[in-house]
Amino acid sequence: MIGVRKHYPSMRIAPPWSAIYRRLGFKAGTTELREGERVHIDRLIQEGIDLVELKGASLVLGIKGLGEGGVLLEGDVLFPSASLAGMLAGCTGALIMAATAGRGIVEAIERSSADDLTRAVVYDAVGSEMADAALDWIVSAVGQDLVRMALRPTRKRFSSGYGDLGLESQQTIWEMLRLEELGIGLTPSMMLVPGKSVTAVAGVVTLA
To answer: Which of 32, 34, 36, 151 pairs as cysteine with 146 (C-beta 3.0–4.6 A)?
Structure first.
């Protein structure tokens, strides 16, 4: 498990309806929708879900060093982020992962942006939340393997472009996980393609 790259070419997860509605700005007990509006939004959400094709990848590596200079992993992989090092304090390893909602939902967002802004906004929320939920799925799946080794992944995770973990770390993760094999590309500005794609690093700790 440690040091073994895993690809998940077809992931099935329960759609995070509540999270999608929160991303759309709806607040439970506060936002009111007429019945017809709720039916319309639900239909658009389901359309977006049907367009999503989740794929992902993971890799667990041991930690060689943590400090002001960042995180040094096995294989001499360096993430120059003091904030990430702080999050991984007390961890023995790091879970590197990525997920994508696929090209279909992104292309649908682009098409809808020209003539149906509501549909585009809903699809955008679906794509973002489904990709994020896929990371949760990966953490759970990896956790089932790690528990046999008396290890578990942390709930907290850190993404490229957040805090002092620059977007350039996307290239490191893209190469480590061989994301091109899943149809995920990388632009010169270190953005993942298709757009509804995410990377993250979580910790791995020893069970007490």
So the answer is: 151
